[in-house]
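The record is kept unedited without comment:

——
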Amino acid sequence: MRVWRICSSRHATSAFSGIGSKQVGGRWTPPGRLAVYTAEQQSTAILEMLVHMDPRHFSTGFVVIAADLPDNAALETVDTEALPGDWRTRTEDPRLRRIGRDWLERGDTLALRVPSVVSPPEFNLILNPAHPDFERITIHAPEPFLFDPRLRR
């Protein structure tokens, strides 16, 4: 399975370290835990970046990085139907962060498949850098990425 990550080119070398999530946390993981947020499709990775960006920063300086997970890597999928009704509107929801924290503590799968907030039928994968299969991920070279300027509108 191929996953995608878009980031500033200055963070390309650490894009799969999990340090960013450890520092600030994310929707599905609390601060203090290494985790790498990726998307199943490159277009979903773009959308996920857009909702966090100031349109003035759409110029150059970004890269897209593809990564291939091992074919037999175990994944866990969050059941969207079991989530609280307001899960898409709360960015630092302790209920959602508990899901990621518990998954990281169990450590039994390489990835947690979570629904995308910006496109719920699509999924993101959170990778666990502490899982033994993490070293088996093939991380491709970063490629320059330019946001389409029409997205500024």
Observations:
- The two ends are 33 Å apart (CA to CA).
- Helices lie at 19-24, 42-50, 94-106.
